[in-house]
Amino acid sequence: MDSLVQLDLHQPPDPRAPKLRPRLPEFLRKPETSHMAVQSLKNGMRARHLHTVCESARCPNMHECFHRGAATFMILGNICTRGCTFCSVPKGSPEKREMPLDAAEPENVARMAAEMKLSYVVITSVNRDDLPDGGSHHFAETVRQVRTALPEARVEVLTPDFCGDHAAVARVLEAGPHVFNHNMETVERLYRKVRPQADYRQSLDVLSFARRHRPESLVKSGLMVGLGETEEEVNLLLADLHAAGAQIATIGQYLQPTRRNLAVAEYVPLDRYERWRAFGEQAGLANVFAGPFVRSSYMADLVHARAAAEGATP
Predict the structure, then answer these.
(1) In 3D, which of 146, 91, 137, 95 has the Cα closest to residue 116?
(2) What whole-number distance in Å separates Cα of residue 198 and Cα of residue 83?
(3) Could you tell me how far CA 293 lies from the centroid of its own chain?
(4) Is the distance from CB of 213 to CB of 253 less than 8 angstroms?
(5) Over the stretch 39-50, which tens digit does the pLDDT of each residue have?
(6) How many other C-beta atoms are found inside a 10 Å radius of the C-beta of residue 106?
(7) What whole-number distance in Å separates Cα of residue 217 and Cα of residue 229?
(8) pLDDT tens-digit readout, 83-114
(9) What is the spatial distance between Cα 233 and Cα 276, in angstroms, rounded to a whole number?
(10) Please, which residues have CB within 8 angstroms of residue 164's CB and are 6 or more apart in sequence?
(11) Rounded Cα gap, residues 286 and 306, in angstroms
(12) Of 28, 86, 26, nearest to 291 (Cα)?
């Protein structure tokens, strides 16, 4: 008689076995359809030695946004001094490589934004913990150059935490951005896993300082879901954002950009975004923009317009 292999269905799983990854649902499959628009914008950026977070972070909305003529400028170079596990932006140690600032970058960003005829300009950056000011002088100068080149445009900044340095945050604010954005990224419990060189309370403090220091600027923050957080933890984060003075929150599905990055724990069902939106706005936030493809800078002009319509701007 042939021997039979019997399976014990009550046997616990082998911890050494590879973990099964959740299958990508159909609602998270986005076609890449605007190849000419993408290549054209990339060519213009490379000609001025500029970077976009859209490319470096492998954003799934890149084709759509480039087709709309929208892009998020990433300044202070293309090498980040931090090792956040969710992010695919190239990382480097200042002790091991020189990362000089490009003095022409602020003017080149302004020229590119003017050439694109942008009415809403989003500027972000890598972390530059190797610089005494965290790159805040360079960031502020970029904002000033854009505001000079496009005086009618709205400018949104998405800044690092500057290691909690209020002087650096103030320097960027005093350049006159219409929206100050600093992302929380995840719930407090997951910070060590997701943002090991950041601090939850420090990031809230940056947002709170921004609201106090320049109340005429809208304060905004964003987070990713699908990293292992609970629905209640996201609710708590939204309440913390409101308490810190933020007026806008964005919530979107984390998608693993490369195999080297943190794996997705869950693909969040669509109805949960609506519950978070309702909770956040009931808690006092002017606008909670939530959905699987939402990113911090995605449709930023429309998000700003809605918040303004809700009376978030003085």
Answers:
(1) 146
(2) 10
(3) 12
(4) no
(5) 777 777 788 878
(6) 22
(7) 30
(8) 999 988 888 875 566 778 999 999 999 999 99
(9) 11
(10) 199, 202, 205, 206
(11) 8
(12) 28
Tens-place pLDDT, residues 200-256: 999 999 999 999 999 999 999 999 999 999 999 999 999 999 999 999 999 999 998
Q: Does the domain spanning 32-309 belong to CATH 3.20.20.70?
A: yes
The token pair at 139 is 């960031």
DSSP collapsed to 3 states, the chain? CCCCCCCCCCCCCCCCCCCCCCCCCHHHCCCCCCHHHHHHHHHHHHHCCCEEHHHHCCCCCHHHHHHHCCCEEEECCCCECCCCCCCCCCECCCCCCCCCCCCCHHHHHHHHHHHCCCCEEEEEECCCCCCCCCCHHHHHHHHHHHHHHCCCCEEEEECCCHHHCHHHHHHHHCCCCCEEECCCECCHHHHHHHCCCCCHHHHHHHHHHHHHHCCCCEEEEEEEECCCCCHHHHHHHHHHHHHHCCCEEEEEECCCCCCCCCCCCCCCCHHHHHHHHHHHHHCCCCEEEECCCCCCCCCHHHHHHHHHHCCCCC
Q: Where are the domains of the chain?
A: 32-309
51 — phi, psi (to 5°)?
A: -125, 155
| Strand arrangement of the beta sheet that strand 179-181 belongs to | 51-52, 72-75, 120-125, 154-158, 179-181, 218-225, 248-253, 287-290
Contact call for residues 281 and 47 (beta carbons, < 8 A): no
User: 218-225 and 120-125: which strand pairing?
Assistant: unpaired
Please name the residue that has the structure tokens 């997951």. Answer: 190
Reading the block at residue 146, the tokens are 């854009």
Sole residue written with tokens 């909670």 = 288
